[in-house]
Design a protein that fits this description.
The protein is mainly alpha-helical. It has one domain. About 75% of the residues lie in helices and about 0% in strands. The protein is built from four helices and no strands.
Length: about 90
């Protein structure tokens, strides 16, 4: 992770075992250091913020679509899988 190596180069200890748990702390430290050095947050801060916001938006859209028409989505999935299920290699007989 680029932010972890950035912080390590500046003398901040990064716990790579728990990096997923502590990522918000490291993002905050990265932002604080780059603000002090350059006067604005570094590019990796914006990269993280934008990707997390997009993931949240897509998750909400997915939940709304599933709740609006669950039977339509299931039937579309079934239609997609029918050709695969008709092949003899995928049929399990006892």
């Amino acid at each position: 992770m680029v932010i972890a190596s950035f912080l390590s180069r500046r003398g901040i200890k990064v716990n790579y075992v728990f990096i997923r748990v502590l990522i918000l702390k490291y993002i905050h430290q990265y932002r604080k250091i780059t603000m002090q050095e350059k006067g604005r947050p570094g590019p990796w801060f914006y990269s993280f913020v934008i990707s997390m916001n997009l993931a949240l938006v897509f998750a909400i859209v997915r939940i709304v679509l599933i709740k609006s028409e669950p039977s339509a989505m299931i039937s579309k999935l079934g239609d997609t899988l029918k050709p695969c299920l008709n092949k003899k290699a995928l049929v399990f007989e006892s």
